[in-house]
Design goal:
By secondary structure, this protein is of the alpha/beta class. It folds into two domains: 8-147, 3-Layer(aba) Sandwich (Rossmann fold); 163-339, Glycogen Phosphorylase B (Rossmann fold). Helices cover 35% and strands 15% of the residues. It is built from twelve helices and twelve strands. The strands form two sheets. Strands 3-2-1-4-5-6 form a six-stranded parallel β-sheet, covered by helices on one side. Strands 9-8-7-10-11-12 form a six-stranded parallel β-sheet. Helix 10 (285-288) links the parallel strand 11 (276-279) and strand 12 (295-298). The chain is globular, with a radius of gyration of 21 Å. The termini are far apart.
């Protein structure tokens, strides 16, 4: 298809933090190729804060959060709003049926996305799914070929926090000495290393390396994160739910390193340029590893590794991929990073 007449593009961004970070190179590639295009993001409410000050984006439209009940009236109203806005092209990054439906109902002339979930009829440019596993960031970038944009394969994610968030993060960082960031919680049970292990790691980092530890997480994770920190028996700073995503980004940027499970926070740390230590098990790094210029993935070599299941299916030794990763191994990764 030709892009000669395109001026107004809307991009349906993914629903999760990690996927949004992996999708960020799409904005860079699109803006570099066509700085004159008007680019709008359609993104979940809590994720919109990452893009409000993004120079690659002209407008941000917030989607109702998935945690809220589905509102058919709101869905139709949004479709009508998008239809009246005059977008000529919609790029749909998620594979979900609903993400294609909203652009279809809005009657956006060009609708680009992957064939999935019986939504082929709603797309004007329906791409086949990749035949082999590729990194999700590359999967998103491939969609741009339909608008004649051929991005560089080494495009890295960038985030542009607003001035207020950046200043708040700087103030928090000034109140700390040398510190690392840890996120001990993640949504999928199969990706959890273990709260007791995190408590022991925090204690070792503080006592042996004389570092401070900042714990981050979502608002609904505060109590769990607090218990992990308290069980360590040492001082820590719990900012779970107290720091917005842009502020968390700024805190990560000044940290000596980041330690966490396979989660959106690991991708945020990588985007901040922080040395990222990812504890990997059920996830597949080939597809979803953090795009960190500096980092290390700690994982076991088991037949069941990278099962990509949210709940471990094994009955003989459940969660073995997590259990075999020791506190010592992760601590040594932190120590080596700090020594550098």
């Amino acid at each position: 298809m030709t892009n000669s007449k395109m001026k107004k593009v809307i991009i349906r961004f993914p629903n999760w933090l990690g996927d949004c970070i992996m999708a960020a190179p799409v904005l860079t590639a699109l803006r570099n190729a066509h700085p004159e295009w008007e680019v709008t993001l359609l993104v979940r409410g809590y994720l919109s804060q990452l893009f409000r000050s993004d120079p690659r984006v002209d407008h941000v439209i917030e989607l109702k959060d998935k945690s809220d009940s589905f509102n058919p009236t709101g869905f139709f109203e949004l479709a009508d709003e998008l239809g009246q806005a005059g977008y000529d092209t919609g790029i749909i990054l998620p594979d979900s049926f609903s993400s294609a439906l909203i652009f279809f109902m809005a009657k956006i002339p060009t609708r680009i996305g992957y064939k999935a979930q019986m939504r082929r009829f709603m797309l004007t440019d329906a791409l086949d799914q990749p035949k082999k596993i590729i990194h999700r960031s590359q999967k998103y970038l491939r969609l741009l070929k339909s608008v004649d944009v051929i991005p560089h394969v080494d495009v890295e994610p960038e985030i542009f926090p607003d001035d207020e968030s950046r200043q708040r993060a700087e103030l928090l960082a000034r109140g700390l000495d040398r510190y690392i960031v840890i996120t001990p919680q993640t949504n999928a049970p199969s990706r959890r290393w273990g709260y007791d292990k995190y408590s022991k790691l925090i204690a070792r980092v503080v006592k042996a390396l004389k570092l401070q530890v900042v714990l981050l997480g979502a608002e609904n994770e505060y109590d769990v994160v607090e218990k992990v920190g308290s069980d360590s028996g040492v001082q820590f700073l719990n900012l779970a739910g107290r720091a917005s995503l842009p502020v968390s980004y700024g805190i990560m940027k000044e940290a000596l390193c980041f330690v966490g499970n396979d989660s959106g926070a690991a991708h945020l740390a990588a985007a901040a340029g922080t040395y990222t230590i990812s504890i990997s098990g059920a996830d597949n790094p080939e597809e979803t590893r953090p795009l960190a210029a500096r980092g290390k993935i700690i994982r076991s070599d088991l037949p069941c590794i990278s099962c990509v299941k949210n709940i471990c299916p094994r009955k003989d030794v459940p969660m073995e991929c997590m259990h075999v990763i020791s506190v010592e191994e992760v601590f040594e990764a932190v120590r080596e990073t700090v020594d550098e």
